[in-house]
Amino acid sequence: MFSGLFQSTTIPVLQEVVNFSQIRHTVLAGNIANLDTPGYQVRDLSLEDFQERLQAAIKERRQPPAPIYRSPGEPEVEKSLPLADVSKSPKSILYHDKSNVGLEYQVTEMVKNQLQHNTALSIMRSQFRLLQAAISGKT
Hints:
The protein is mostly helical. The protein is built from four helices and two strands, in the order ααβαβα.
């Protein structure tokens, strides 16, 4: 019942953005921690790849669902949601040549990532407030 309510909002999209930015923040922090380690290869998650997969999942989600015909008493089978596979690709880790990436670049990427994370959380918070107001009947 509630899954349909949440799936019709932007909350699942925002959840994927928050999850991706949390994982990317960990990777970037590891880069900064190991920047002076001899032989360390700088890692990053492909933001472009994530955005492409998220955009494809959103387009798929907008397609009208095919009608489901069930016999009376047959349990409802939960369909796989298009947004569920956005952040599951292991191919999203890219390895860069460590000689062209400095501390300033890593810190800049962390700040941009933090802004993306905070923006998604702020929008998600407002979505939950709207849902709460709609459920309680208050405006």
